[in-house]
Structure formats: structure tokens, C-alpha cells
Design a protein that fits this description.
This protein has 409 residues and is an all-alpha fold. It has 18 helices and 2 strands. The chain is globular and about 55 Å long.
């Protein structure tokens, strides 16, 4: 009896409605709101500093938080967002969060105090957490099997493409005033009618049948282990992934390359490589299996970081950025998929909310990890080599675990 009660029943949910291209387009576009949250503000940080720091020098420490603060808010609030998604429903929370995203996102354009802007950005991050958690959860709810795999990958690719577009748009809007990019956050409100009209609530409208296409059910300890592995993988992977965009400009400056155009080009090459990794992921997953893709992406991250630390020309840096980016592009879909497959409908929001929190926590602490390694090694390049070595060790341990176990690691 105890064994039965501790095992999740072998069921899957099948919606009475069939999700298609329209629902997919809405969820993919809504998923992209999180990348818009960061990329449109990053180009205007110098203008923000010029506006507020001369009168209040202590505000210099707050200016970077305008860009990074939402990531911290997402990391803290995403588990709560997942709980809300399971309690009040994914559709309603997504609709409300999109409204808050658009309205609160645009408010800083009307403010004249940096502290108030930062508060708005933190509230904005909470809305981002709800949007991302609901979109990811609905993808898991609406599709099963290979269609789910496709939409997970399309989500990552769409986020990358939209991020590239709005990085350029935000920079162009900010040429005249730091306020203009914030007005662009009103645009996602146009998604609200589509969310209301095209999506439905799986928690209320789904029916349960006695079959499953996602593999055998897991006991609660096994499910907890699967969740822990996914969280640790994505957090550690994001720490490694964000070393390149954050530290690469300093390394290019060290070798004498101070052109902002060239530094921006290198960042664009890294983003394109990330998209390439996302596109390659389904093929590699089918060829070698998901467990071994984890090994491959960790080795690519390690190799890219090592080559970056050893690079002393722009060409060498670009090679390192491409190798690293391919690995980074495979990380999120490969870590997320087993959670979508194994989490039951009633708790999928909470499980994926925790995943979102781990993802953004990795982004936020990455510079802090690099700083700690610099203090231990004495310089940036040895610090990056140390992180590369640790990543390679994790890859080897993952390979050994995958060879010894039949579980979906």
C-alpha cells in the first residue's frame, strides 16, 4: 500500500482541444518577453549613468541593477509563480502578468528617480517570472512526445531571434533618449487578446486517460532526483554560459581591441552560435541520446572557456565564442525536457517555476563566481581556466553516471 501511495500513477493528460500553430505562435512570442526585458535596456546604461550619477555619485552602483535586477527578481519569484500557475491557472496568470509586464515596463520612461526606476524593474522581473513559467508550462501541457520536443526547441530559437532584433531596436531607440526604449515594453500588451482568445486552461479543461506516452511513471524520490538534476544542470550551465558575454569585452580590451562595433560583432557571433546549438540539438539528441548531449554541451562549454582564456587575437576569441555558444544553445532545452515529461499536470507549474529560478540564478551569480575565482587565482584569464576545468570535470562525472545508470540524467 505504501509503495502505491508513493508512486505517481501512470497517466497522461489529453486536452479536449488540439493545440496548433496559433497557440504555438502565442506561446513562443510570449516566451520572448523575458529576453526583451534585458536586451532593450543594456544599450542605454551609459545614458542612465550620465543622467543620474553626476548629481548622486553613489547611484553608480545602482545603474547596472537596472539591467540585472529583473534577473534576480525572476530567480526569487519564479517558484512562487509556478505555485500560482498550479493554483489559479496558467492562462489567467499569463494574461495578468503580460498586462503588468507592459504597464510596469513602460513606467520608468516617466520617472526621474533612479531608485524608483529600480523598484519598477524588480516588479517587472516578477511579471517576467510569471510569463516565462506559464509559457513553458503550457508548452508541456499542450503537446506530448516529439511535438513537445519541437516546441521546446522553437521556444529557445525564438527567444534568441527576438533578443537579437530588440537588442538592435533598443539601441536605436536609445540613441536620442534613455527613456524611449522603455516605451517599447507597451508592445506586448498586444498579445493579451490572443492569449485570451486562443489559449485555454489545461487544469480545468483536460481529461485524464489511463495511458502515458512519456515513459514509465516515477516514484516521488525519483521525481525529486530528476528535478534536482535538472535544476543543478541549468544553474551550473548558465554560470558557465554567462562568463562569455560578461567577460569577453574586457578580454578584447586587454588585447587592444576597443572598438564597440567589433565587441558588439563578437557578441552577435556568440548569439548566432547559441541559435546554431539550439537548431542542432534535436538532431544530436536523436543521434546520441539526451544523456550524452549533456556531456557534449558541457565539454563544448569547457573548451570554449579555455580557448577564450588563451585567446590573444580577435580571431581566436571569435573561435572560442562560437564553440562556447553551440554548447550554451543546447543547455536549456536538454535540461528542461525531462522535467516536462515527468512532472504531472497538477504540479508542472511548480516544477518548471523552480527550473526558471535555477536558470536565472545561474545568470545572476555568474559574475560573482568569476570574481571569486579572480580572487583565488589573481587574474581574469586563470579564473576562466579554473571554471573551464571544473566544467570539464563535471562533464566526465556526468559521462560516468550516464554509462552506469539507465535513468534519464
Amino acid at each position: 500500500m505504501n509503495q502505491i501511495s508513493s508512486t505517481i500513477p501512470p497517466v497522461r493528460t489529453v486536452s479536449p482541444q488540439q493545440a496548433g500553430i496559433a497557440q504555438g505562435a502565442v506561446l513562443l512570442l510570449a516566451s520572448s518577453l523575458t529576453i526583451m526585458g534585458a536586451v532593450m535596456v543594456a544599450p542605454i546604461l551609459p545614458k542612465l549613468a550620465a543622467e543620474f550619477v553626476p548629481a548622486h555619485p553613489a547611484a553608480a552602483a545602482l545603474v547596472p541593477l537596472v539591467a540585472t535586477g529583473p534577473a534576480l527578481a525572476i530567480a526569487i519569484s519564479a517558484p512562487f509563480a509556478g505555485w500560482l500557475a498550479d493554483r489559479v491557472g496558467r492562462k489567467m496568470l499569463l494574461l495578468l502578468a503580460t498586462l503588468v509586464y507592459g504597464l510596469v515596463g513602460a513606467v520608468p520612461a516617466l520617472l526621474n528617480d533612479l531608485g524608483s526606476i529600480l523598484v519598477c524593474r524588480l516588479v517587472f522581473g516578477v511579471a517576467e517570472a510569471c510569463v516565462m513559467t506559464c509559457c513553458t508550462t503550457l508548452i508541456g501541457d499542450y503537446w506530448q512526445g516529439e511535438m513537445r520536443v519541437r516546441y521546446v526547441n522553437r521556444q529557445i530559437v525564438t527567444v534568441g531571434i527576438v533578443g537579437t532584433i530588440f537588442f538592435i531596436v533598443g539601441g536605436a531607440a536609445g540613441e536620442h533618449s534613455w527613456r524611449y526604449p522603455f516605451y517599447l515594453y507597451i508592445l506586448p500588451i498586444l498579445l493579451v487578446p490572443a492569449i485570451a482568445g486562443l489559449l485555454w486552461e489545461p487544469l480545468r479543461e483536460s481529461r485524464v486517460v489511463q495511458s502515458e506516452d512519456d515513459g514509465r511513471p516515477l516514484s516521488r524520490p525519483q521525481l525529486a532526483l530528476t528535478m534536482t538534476i535538472g535544476y543543478v544542470l541549468v544553474c551550473f550551465g548558465m554560470i558557465c554560459s554567462f562568463v562569455v558575454p560578461v567577460q569577453m569585452p574586457q578580454l578584447m580590451t586587454e588585447i587592444g581591441e576597443r572598438s564597440s562595433t567589433m565587441i558588439g560583432t563578437a557578441s552577435g557571433v556568440g548569439l548566432l552560435a547559441t541559435l546554431g546549438g539550439s537548431i542542432m540539438w534535436p538532431w544530436l539528441r536523436n543521434a546520441v541520446g539526451r544523456r550524452h548531449v549533456n556531456v557534449a554541451l558541457l565539454l563544448l562549454l569547457a573548451a570554449g572557456l579555455y580557448l577564450l582564456a588563451e585567446a590573444h587575437t580577435v580571431q581566436a576569441i571569435l573561435v572560442a565564442v562560437v564553440i562556447h555558444g553551440v554548447g550554451a544553445g543546447m543547455l536549456v532545452p536538454n535540461a528542461m525536457l525531462p522535467l516536462m515529461r515527468k512532472l504531472p499536470l497538477a504540479t508542472r507549474g511548480r516544477g518548471l517555476g523552480g527550473f526558471t529560478a535555477a536558470l536565472y540564478l545561474g545568470q545572476f551569480v555568474s559574475p560573482l563566481v568569476v570574481l571569486s575565482c579572480i580572487r583565488a587565482t589573481g587574474a581574469l584569464r586563470p579564473a576562466i581556466i579554473a571554471i573551464a576545468a571544473a566544467t570539464a570535470v563535471v562533464a566526465v562525472l556526468w559521462l560516468l553516471a550516464a554509462l552506469r545508470s539507465r535513468e534519464d540524467l
